[in-house]
User: Which sequence fits this backbone?
């Protein structure tokens, strides 16, 4: 089974609550008010820093182009860093925030102000990655037009293309492919964008990646192929047929010896089992425990398992 990390979660932009505290100092950092507070909680003694967002940062998160331009007109630094105790948002720039908002006019306003197009936050993410995973195709294209590095890597090896495959829009994925995004790049866990899209069960994205030359035979660190990942989705049948049509190997097993047929049997999915058998899946194959697909079906001890088992006898 896979030990891969889930797609990065969206940084929270909710209002922050303050601990009971005494204000020690206020420091202005590039237009961003950094408040240092000393906790007064019983038994507590340490200090904690929280952020009061500047008008520019707030407007960027909201995708408010007019607010962004107003803040810039007031000499706000377009490359100011968000200083916060929230690790998901720490060191984000206004351009990253605007890209995440999916509002292209806010992105353009910051680009016109010479915001750094390839700045990185504490997770190694660039504005293009935020646009790919949380914004839209128009934001992606605006950043690409400004020279954003389409193949930059964040922590754990994620690229903008992988983020678009995992959680972005089809337009964002298409813009990245057209710009030359490398479909063969891999995460720390050796996953490709096609594997990510297959795990999500997104037929449109899978088709786009296949058309761009993505390999159906690649395996990740745990031996998973795109087909093995597709079997585990709730939209398995359509994407499994799609991958088999692209010549995905039907009998490649993961590091535990489980084949696509075994996974389909363990899910009690008779439709998938039929599709895989028709594609040449080996009923006699055994996993690391010595179990066949039939045994996986029988282990369910329910109606779905019985239906699968009848197909595998």
Assistant:
């Amino acid at each position: 089974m896979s030990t891969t990390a889930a797609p990065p979660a969206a940084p929270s932009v909710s209002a922050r609550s303050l601990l009971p505290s005494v204000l020690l100092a206020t420091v202005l950092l590039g237009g961003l008010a950094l408040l240092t507070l000393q906790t007064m909680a019983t038994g507590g003694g340490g200090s904690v820093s929280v952020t009061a967002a500047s008008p520019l940062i707030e407007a960027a998160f909201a995708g408010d182009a007019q607010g962004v331009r107003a803040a810039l007109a007031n000499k706000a630094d377009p490359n100011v860093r968000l200083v916060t105790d929230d690790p998901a948002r720490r060191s984000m720039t206004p351009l990253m925030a605007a890209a995440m908002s999916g509002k292209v006019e806010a992105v353009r306003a910051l680009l016109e102000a010479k915001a750094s197009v390839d700045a990185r936050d504490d997770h190694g993410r660039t504005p293009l990655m935020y646009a790919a995973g949380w914004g839209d195709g128009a934001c992606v294209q605006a950043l690409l037009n400004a020279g954003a590095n389409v193949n930059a890597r964040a922590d754990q090896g994620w690229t903008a293309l992988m983020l678009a495959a995992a959680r972005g829009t089809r337009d964002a994925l298409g813009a990245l492919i057209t710009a030359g995004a490398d479909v063969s790049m891999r995460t720390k866990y050796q996953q490709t964008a096609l594997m990510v899209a297959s795990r999500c069960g997104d037929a449109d994205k899978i088709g786009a990646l296949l058309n761009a030359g993505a390999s159906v035979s690649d395996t990740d660190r745990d031996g998973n192929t795109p087909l093995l990942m597709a079997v585990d989705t709730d939209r398995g049948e359509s994407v499994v047929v799609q991958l088999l049509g692209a010549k995905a190997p039907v009998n490649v097993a993961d590091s535990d010896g489980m084949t696509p047929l075994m996974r389909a049997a363990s899910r009690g999915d008779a439709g998938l089992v039929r599709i895989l058998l028709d594609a040449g899946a080996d009923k006699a194959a055994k996993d690391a425990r010595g179990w066949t697909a039939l045994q996986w079906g029988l282990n369910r001890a329910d109606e779905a398992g019985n239906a699968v088992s009848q197909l595998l006898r």
About this structure: Residues 236-245 form the longest helix (10 residues). Strands lie at 21-29, 32-39, 47-52. Residues 13-52 have pLDDT under 50 and may be disordered.
